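To: structure subgroup
Subject: Chain for Friday's discussion

All,

I'm putting the inputs and outputs inline so they're searchable in the archive.
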Amino acid sequence: MLDQDPNSLARRAESLRRAGELAGGERPFALITVVRTEPATSARIGDRAIVFADGTLDGWVGGGCIGPTARREAIAALEEGMPRLVRVTPDTAASQPGVRMARMACASEGTADLYVEPFLPRPTLIVAGDSPVAATLAAIAPPLGFRLLMLDAGTQLSLGEVPYPQDSWMVVATFGEFDEDAVEAGVRLGLPYVGLLASARRAGQVLSGLRARGLGDGELAVVRSPAGLPLGTSGQEGISLSIMAEISSLRAESRPSFSERQERESTGEPDEAVDPVCGMAVEVACARDIFEHGGTHYYFCCSGCRRAFEEEPEKYLAQVSIR
């Protein structure tokens, strides 16, 4: 049953209002909505929260039993660019098609189903120069869903103009005018792709000049020259089409598939640790209460659990071993 408490309704309305303000902007976020619950859980159907790419959670979808999972699943949805339905439950054995199972982060016997919807900013195409190819790129990029940013010799690139560099792509079509400065700006901003339209000789000169400015080969690996896929096309339209095809291909490759993410999660560092005192799951990256014992770091949900462990570590480690 939907909670009709005025405070709860106001909180949900505020989350929707905030999401409406953020949607279409340049900051990625995920909107989480509680769509189903089973007792006992502090989450209520209709509760909502916004989670940003850095893990900041604004709103309410349950307390410490659900919060860590909500953050993790929101970040994963942002990485994949796909919505997901997540069941947070103490019993993850009973799987269901289309539902991701996630273990409840504490001893609660309740269950909460979360619908996690990512909102990603439009990809940005930065075009440097005023050549015919630059003009053609400027014409075809917006219909393909790209936000367009034109760069001339007097423009300085900054995170203010490119707040989401992970999905911002640059084409330098200056044909000799400020090409070295433009490529350097894109590389230093951390863009995944800087396409340089230049002859092989000129491209070599640009790269040599950038090495002299202190950029290493690893940083310069994002520079593509010749730019574009070998489609066999010619003319400014054909060149522009091949460049957008290359960018689209790289964008598709940059998003991990579900299986790739599972493999990465299974072999990487753990996102969560178990508080040895209370048994609650703790986000390692956000943990404030940490204590080292016997060469191992232990993470705690609060300072009270940490102090209890500091006084009797062997007692709690023995409890962990029999859980």
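Points worth raising on Friday:
Residues 6-121 form one domain.
The CA atoms of residues 128 and 172 lie 5 Å apart.

D.
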